[in-house]
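Teaching note: in complex prediction, the entire set of molecules is handled at once rather than each chain in isolation. The prompt given to students was simply: 'Predict the structure of this complex.' The entities are:
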Amino acid sequence: MAFDVFGTVVDWRTSIAREASAFFAAAGVAGIDPHAFADQWRGLYQPAMEACRSGGRPYTRLDVLNRETLETLLTDHGIVADPERVADFALAWRRLDPWPDSVAGLTRLKARFPIVTLSNGNVALMLHLARFGGLPWDAILGAEATGVYKPLPQAYLGTADILGIAPEDLCLVAAHHSDLAAARGCGLRTAYVDRPLELGGTPKPDRRAAQDWDFAADSLTELADKLES
Amino acid sequence: MAFDVFGTVVDWRTSIAREASAFFAAAGVAGIDPHAFADQWRGLYQPAMEACRSGGRPYTRLDVLNRETLETLLTDHGIVADPERVADFALAWRRLDPWPDSVAGLTRLKARFPIVTLSNGNVALMLHLARFGGLPWDAILGAEATGVYKPLPQAYLGTADILGIAPEDLCLVAAHHSDLAAARGCGLRTAYVDRPLELGGTPKPDRRAAQDWDFAADSLTELADKLES
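The expected output is the structure of the full assembly:
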């Protein structure tokens, strides 16, 4: 089983807002809503990856893209801060809390199936995130291992290839219909996990892309229930 | 900390001999010493990788090389067996027992440092080996992640690069002086773990390459003792 991570396994928005609050306090910045800042930072994520996906830029690790988009955002807000503090804040994506069911759900799923990441996060980011939250991955695959960002087909197909299995023997678990649709297009099986609080309760932009996925659950523990029965 | 695996973390010779015995019994083969067969199979390992290292052949996963060398060896012995059984035996390298101290030692080291593989085994092989023996890796790196076999420098340097750290911040743990020498040549730190039974008690061919390594221990638990003190 392969997992999307940001939003599916970890609650990036609450965690980035927490890190933003600490950063603003240390930098003496007032008047910026930390959740809005988290949304803005995340908003720069797809365009940054798109430059790599389109072939205009070689594959560049997400840690690097996050640093660049953070600097853009700080400039937009007129914030000047100590470079070391900015570098540390840029790595906030390595310190995101799992959703409350994630560790228990992954641990149960791991007892039956190999569990790997199929995230756009790079290996070092995913490794530190796993250690931060206790995520028991068998391997860290996805964008860096395949050299391309989702939803390009090679991210899904290359992950199955590295695992030495056919695409139909790999199931993507994700909270995003667009991700699952791309995986299904490559022949993978699909499991949707609903994460209504990913954007703080705001509906997801890709809800119109919903399909009848192979599995659907409200948590990773519920997904484990369904796969054990 | 990055770990060599075959011989350092797992006892390949005893495990392959066990699998060979079962294979010979099922195939009705008599008169071949299973430990000698394990040594012969392992003996074809370096030449097979050398074809990739020399540039004569693109990087090819060890699972594939093991299948090829097994078929060569079976032909040499005049053994004809069911292809499915041969395919399963070729994957015996995914089912090797850890040395008695490995899981406890790795678990203790993981509490302090990220622990990754820096092995010539491919990702799927390493993943199944980890699940077979309960090896708690944070990530599976090494040959497949870097696209080259040890002891080429890029295997060591590329692993550090993926981790986002300088070579001197990575320590290779290995039972083979030749591996440690190559790692040191790339600027990595080095930890030697003595595994006198790797070849069943026969002295190691690379013992003349011994150096004064940064750390040395008789087991991974002893290495943990030294690094915790």
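Point out the following to students. The first helix of chain A runs from residue 12 to 27. The interface with chain B takes residues 61, 63, 114, 116, 122-124, 126-128, 130-131, 138-141, 144-145, 162-165 of chain A (CB under 8 Å).
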